[in-house]
Every structure is written in C-alpha cells, then in structure tokens.
Design a protein that fits this description.
15% strand; Nuclear Transport Factor 2, Chain: A; 7-stranded mixed β-sheet; 13 helices; alpha+beta; 7 strands; Rna Polymerase Sigma Factor, Chain: A
Length: 279
C-alpha cells in the first residue's frame, strides 16, 4: 500500500465527504461515494501523481456524477419527484432535514442536470478550476464554464445562491451538533473558525473558542434545544428553552464554511434583532 496515498486520503477525507455531500444531498450516499473513491484509488497507480488531493477529488466527483445519473434515470422511470423538505412542518420534516446541507440545497440543485450540478458544486462551492472539472463532465473548459453559468442562473432563479448555501450550512451545523456528528461539524467549519460570546452569553457559561477542532468538540451533541431562526433576514440558530430565545447564534460564512459564530445573549442586543423562528 502506498503510504503517501493513505496519508493523503485521510487528510482529504473531510473535504471529499463534503464535496460528495453537497453533490448528492445524502450523508449515507456521500460516505458510499468516498469509500468507492478509496477503492478506485487503491486499484490505480498513484506513484506519479503530484497532487493526490486533487486527484482524489476528481475520483469522488466522477463517482458522484455516475450516482446522480443513475438517480435521475430511476426517477424518470418512476416518474417521481425528488424528496425535499416538507414546508408544511409535518413530522416527516425532521427525517428529511437529517441530511442537512444536501437536503437544503436539493430543492434547487435537483433541478439541474448532473453535469451542471457537478460543475456548479465544484466551481462555485469548492473553487475547483474549470480546467480540472472539464474532464470529469466530458466537456471543454469553455463548455464547462457555460454549464456552471447556466446552473448558477437556475439556482439564482429559485433563490439567491449565497442565501441557499448559507441556510444549508447553518442547518448542517445545527443537525451535526444535535446528532453528535463530529465529522459533520469539521466538514463545515473553517480551520480558523472562532466563537465569540458576548458578556451575557459568557455569564451563561459560553467561552471564546478558536479552531475547528475546539469548536467541533465543544458543540458536539449540544444543539438539542436549538431552533432555526432568521436574524435580520440571515440564517441562524437560537437556544430557546420553552420557546423563548436565550442565546442567538449568528454565523459568518465564507466559501461554504463557517468562519465565525457570534453568541448574542444581552437583552438589549436581542431586542434590537429582527428575529423570527424558521420552523
């Protein structure tokens, strides 16, 4: 076994899982895709590959493309609609949002053809150059750019792309925290993420945290009382025992990852926030 391949795969695993999750909208399918990518990688000759991380991303992206095409074929054969979040707030909603990022983005992304979806996710969410995406979708770089552009227009036609992504990331944080999913938390936290509590939040026991490992460890299994909210129109969460907001979590998100979480508990600050429960 190539030791450098093993090391690179383990280092790349969170990113590979995140890429697959955003493409497929399912935690289980994303994990399957990552495992399949590992099998493909071990059967290939990686000795001459300089950028193993990029190579592994390419492998998992091609696997996701095949899975999306197979899913689309099955759906067309059954003439069924994709599973999306039930806006009625029925009991089924909790099961549907369990896939966090994928479920939130699926509403829009599932309208895209598989090559469009791959091009959009890799370029717009993970900054992969079109020259590297083109071989995956079987297009020229120029045609791949057009795929992503067309996908972006369709996404923005249903909802602002940034807004969709931010709400998906915040929901992913809430779900991963509630379920104790350490890997899920690490996948959406920037390496240098910070948690900044105000004085009132500090009096409730919140502490300033820095770094994805510290934040993920602190919030693993901690969101059982958290509810999704909009904070001045932006996605957030609130610790609201008994339905009354005690602490509001305001997120700053860049390139699909959380870079800052502000904890607001001062009564005056809470009163000044335009807060609305989203569920």
């Amino acid at each position: 076994m190539n030791d450098s391949l093993v090391k690179s795969f383990e280092e790349s695993r969170p990113r590979l899982r995140s890429v697959a999750h955003r493409m497929l909208g399912s935690t289980v399918e994303a994990e399957d895709a990552v495992q399949e990518a590992w099998l493909h990688a071990t059967r290939a000759d990686a000795s001459g590959i300089a950028n193993l991380g990029g190579w592994l991303t390419t492998i998992v992206s091609r696997i996701c493309l095949d899975m999306l095409r197979a899913r689309r074929s099955r759906r067309e054969a059954k003439d069924e609609l994709p599973d999306v979040i039930d806006p009625s707030g029925s009991p089924d909603r909790e099961a549907l949002v369990a896939d966090s990022v994928g479920a939130a983005l699926l509403v829009v992304l599932d309208t895209l053809a598989p090559p469009e979806r791959i091009a959009f996710v890799l370029h717009d969410l993970f900054d992969v150059p079109f020259e590297e995406i083109a071989p995956i979708v079987g297009r020229t770089p120029t045609a791949t750019r057009q795929l992503a552009s067309r996908a972006r227009r369709r996404v923005e036609g249903g909802a602002a792309a940034a807004d969709v992504l931010e709400r998906a990331v915040v929901e992913a944080f809430r779900q991963a925290s509630r379920e104790g999913d350490l890997a899920g938390l690490l996948a959406i936290l920037a390496p240098d993420v910070v948690v900044l509590p105000d004085a009132a939040a500090a009096r409730l026991g919140a502490v300033e945290l820095r770094g994805d490992a510290a934040v993920a460890a602190a919030y693993k299994g901690r969101a059982r009382e958290a509810r999704p909210v909009t904070i001045d129109g932006a996605a957030g969460t609130s610790w609201a025992p008994g339905g009354k907001p005690r602490v509001v979590f305001a997120f700053t998100i860049e390139a699909g990852r959380i870079v800052e979480i502000q904890l607001v508990a001062e009564l005056a600050a809470l009163a000044a926030i335009d807060l609305m429960f989203a569920d």
